[in-house]
C-alpha cells in the first residue's frame, strides 16, 4: 500500500478493531475503524482499501453502498478459519483478497500491498463489473429489456415494437431505468450495461 495509505476497517468486534489498528500503528497506514457498513455510510472516506470482517451479507451490502455512491474501493475480507467455499463466495461478491484471522502485522501489510498492486494492474475492472451488476439488479425486467434495446442503439419506437408496448411507455421505462442506474445520460447507462456484461 502506498505511503500514508488509508485503511477502512469494518468490524463489529471492538477488540479486533483495536488489535488491527495497533498492529498497523507503526507503519505509514492510517486506519479508519467502523463498526459496520451503515456507520461507514455516515462518514464516507475519500480513498483507501477496505478490510472487512466477513459477516453474513456484509460484503454484498458494502458493494451495494459503493454502487449507490458510484465509488469503489478494493475490498479485502477476513474471518477466523474461513472455509474455501466462504473465500470463493467473498471473491464472487467483490473481495479481491481474503485473509484468515489472526494475522501478523507483516502479513496484513503484505495483503494491503497485494490489494494495491491488483487494483493498479486490473484497473479495478472486476469491481466495476460487480458494482454495475448491483445497479442493474435494481431494474425491473421491463427496464432491463429497455436498457438492452438502448444499448444496441434502438429508438424508442423500435424498442416499443420489439416489446409490444407504445413508444411513450418505453420513454417512461427509459426514464425510470436512468434514474435507478444513477445515469445522467444514455451513454452512462450503456457503459453500466457493458461493465455488467449485459451487452457485448
List keywords for this structure.
Rossmann fold, five-stranded parallel β-sheet, 200 residues, Sig_transdc_resp-reg_receiver, elongated, alpha/beta, Arc Repressor Mutant, subunit A
Brief write-up:
This protein is α/β, with parallel strands linked by helices. Helices cover 56% and strands 13% of the residues.
Write the layout of secondary structure elements.
Elements: E1 6-10, H1 14-24, E2 30-34, H2 37-42, E3 49-53, H3 58-69, E4 75-80, H4 84-93, E5 97-101, H5 105-122, H6 125-136, H7 141-151, H8 156-163, H9 167-181, H10 186-195
Parallel strand pairs: 1-2, 1-3, 3-4, 4-5
| Subunit organisation of the chains | single chain
Measured distance between first and last alpha carbons:
34 Å
Globally, the shape reads elongated
The whole-angstrom Rg is 20 Å
Proper CATH architecture of the largest domain: 3-Layer(aba) Sandwich
Low-confidence runs:
none
Structural class by SSE content: alpha/beta
Read across the widest sheet, the strand sequence of neighbours is 2-1-3-4-5
Proportion of residues in helical segments: 55-70%
- Kindly report the average pLDDT value: 85
CATH superfamily of the largest domain: Response regulator
Q: SSE order in H/E notation?
A: EHEHEHEHEHHHHHH
CATH class value of the largest domain:
Alpha Beta
CATH fold category name of the largest domain: Rossmann fold
**Tally of DSSP helical segments:** 10
Q: Count up the domains.
A: 2
Amino acid at each position: 500500500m502506498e505511503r500514508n495509505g488509508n485503511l477502512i476497517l469494518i468490524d463489529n468486534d471492538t477488540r479486533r478493531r483495536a488489535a488491527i489498528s495497533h498492529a498497523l500503528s507503526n507503519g505509514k497506514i492510517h486506519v479508519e475503524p467502523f463498526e459496520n457498513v451503515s456507520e461507514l455510510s455516515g462518514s464516507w472516506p475519500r480513498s483507501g482499501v477496505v478490510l472487512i470482517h466477513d459477516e453474513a451479507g456484509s460484503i454484498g451490502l458494502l458493494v451495494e453502498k459503493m454502487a449507490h455512491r458510484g465509488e469503489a474501493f478494493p475490498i479485502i475480507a477476513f474471518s477466523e478459519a474461513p472455509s474455501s467455499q466462504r473465500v470463493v463466495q467473498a471473491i464472487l461478491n467483490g473481495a479481491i483478497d481474503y485473509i484468515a484471522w489472526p494475522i501478523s502485522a507483516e502479513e496484513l501489510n503484505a495483503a494491503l500491498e497485494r490489494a494495491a498492486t491488483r487494483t493498479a494492474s486490473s484497473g479495478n475492472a472486476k469491481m466495476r463489473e460487480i458494482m454495475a451488476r448491483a445497479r442493474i439488479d435494481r431494474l425491473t425486467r421491463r427496464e432491463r429489456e429497455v436498457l438492452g434495446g438502448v444499448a444496441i442503439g434502438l429508438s424508442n419506437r423500435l424498442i416499443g415494437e420489439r416489446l409490444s408496448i407504445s413508444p411513450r411507455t418505453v420513454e417512461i421505462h427509459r426514464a425510470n431505468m436512468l434514474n435507478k442506474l444513477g445515469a445522467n445520460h444514455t451513454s452512462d447507462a450503456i457503459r453500466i450495461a457493458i461493465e455488467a456484461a449485459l451487452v457485448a
